[in-house]
Design brief:
It is a single chain. The chain is an alpha/beta fold. The chain has two domains: 116 residues, NAD(P)-binding Rossmann-like Domain (Rossmann fold); 184 residues, 2-Layer Sandwich (Dihydrodipicolinate Reductase, domain 2). The protein has ten helices and 15 strands. The strands form two sheets. A nine-stranded mixed beta sheet has the order 14-13-12-11-7-10-9-8-15. Strands 3-2-1-4-5-6 form a six-stranded parallel beta sheet, sandwiched between helices. Helix 4 runs parallel beside helix 5, helix 5 runs antiparallel to helix 10 and helix 7 crosses helix 10. The longest helix is centred in the last third of the chain and has 20 residues. The radius of gyration is 21 Å and the shape is globular. Bound molecules: nicotinamide-adenine-dinucleotide (NAD).
């Protein structure tokens, strides 16, 4: 089978992670890189890869089988549209767009053109979350009662030397909590409504440093998310999952799911249930779900290749990622208004 030719737009932090995995894959190869940065021209030359300063010239010259868009958020929609208008399948990094209206414009264009649009909520490809989801779908916890999500860590002070990270949009809600929202939608189901508080009291920047959210899911389960980028704490997917080489792994849990028949902690996948008589005065039996670890970016790429070949559906299609963005944006709206925000279908 001929290798698919995948181009990469934007070779910064995550773009280079994509380049490495495409280059290492037996299913595909790097067709070219587009990025105006001089450092990226050197990077591409070092890998002996064709380099273009602009995305559209690259797409026209190379005609790749697919393109990964890993540029700053505001460029996701115009660059993904450039690929879609040329009939080229796109894997666009998260968030799908910087506004829900822009996301809708992109999703509608992809659907009209019949061109696959995938979004890089890569955690859905992590076997840990997939195993947790399967256990919940199989009803091993019974009817879901509550989910508790923790998104807490300390971003070092120099992180905020970059101006946009101190401004609205640069805080933990749009950068980090969007992942938790997608994880909870994947695990528990659609979010029907939410309430929130946000605070900037710790760092004093225009953007929030901490936020808490109450969630009501369409299936009746309730949830909370507690987040702060200014807390010296070990509880977040970033710090617990082992997915990120840059962060020491804390071996704590960040998601606690509880149902009528049992409970599950993630990412440890520890379980609790009553084997005999039930009740809070009886001991809970503990266990652990077994899962073989795998690199979610590799699995995401495999899904992209299978979609391009017409052999699979996207694990994270554009319309799905748009709902994650809508729920995330609603957190800011809820914190501003103090009200309950109902989401589509809620
Ligand atoms: N899935 C994840 O966990 C994850 C992790 C990190 C970043 N991201 C997302 O990936 C995107 C990129 O983030 P990053 O941290 O890699 O940023 P980055 O700043 O490290 O890299 C962005 C790259 O895009 C290039 N670029 C700028 N304008 C361009 C243009 N017009 N055409 C082509 N390239 C252009 C820049 O020169 C830079 O090399 C963001 O949307 C971010 O939200 C996702």
């Amino acid at each position: 089978m001929a290798r698919l030719r995948i181009a990469v737009a934007g070779a910064g932090l995550i773009g280079r992670a994509h380049v490495e995995r495409i280059a290492a894959s037996a299913e595909c190869q790097v067709a070219a890189i587009a990025d105006p940065a001089a450092a990226v021209a050197d990077y591409a030359a070092g890998l002996d890869l064709p380099h273009y300063a602009g995305v559209e010239p690259m797409l026209d010259a190379v005609r790749p089988d697919g393109v990964v868009v890993a540029t700053p958020n505001v460029l996701h929609v115009p660059q993904a549209l450039a690929a879609i208008s040329r009939g080229i399948p796109v894997l666009v990094e998260k968030p799908i767009a910087d506004t829900v209206a822009e996301a809708e414009r992109l999703v509608a264009a992809a659907e009209r053109a019949g061109v696959p649009l995938l979004v890089g909520h890569h955690r859905r490809h992590n076997p840990i979350l997939a195993a947790a989801r399967a256990a919940l779908r199989e009803g091993r916890l019974g009817r879901l009662a509550t989910v508790t999500a923790l998104v807490q860590f300390l971003k070092p002070d120099p992180y905020f030397d970059t101006a946009w990270r101190r401004e609205p949009g640069g805080g933990p809600v749009l950068i980090n909590l969007i992942h938790a929202i997608d994880d909870l939608r994947f695990l528990v189901g659609e979010i029907a409504a939410l309430q929130a508080f946000a605070s900037n009291a710790l760092r004093g920047f225009p953007v929030e440093d901490s936020a808490v959210v109450n969630l009501r899911f369409a299936n009746g389960a309730l949830g909370t998310i507690t987040s702060s980028d200014s807390a010296a704490a070990p509880w977040s997917w970033e710090l617990t999952s082992g997915e990120y080489a840059a962060y020491p792994q804390s071996r704590e849990d960040c998601y606690l799911v509880a149902g009528t028949e049992g409970a599950l902690a993630i990412p440890s996948l520890r379980t609790w249930r009553y084997d005999g008589e039930r009740g809070w005065n009886r001991p809970l039996a503990t266990g652990r779900l077994e899962v073989a670890p795998a690199d979610p970016l590799v699995r995401q790429l495999a899904n992209f290749c299978a979609v391009i070949r017409g052999e699979a559906a996207p694990v994270v299609p554009g319309r799905d990622a748009m709902r994650t963005l809508a729920a995330t944006v609603a957190i800011h709206e809820a914190a501003r208004s103090g009200g309950v925000i109902r989401l589509e279908g809620g």
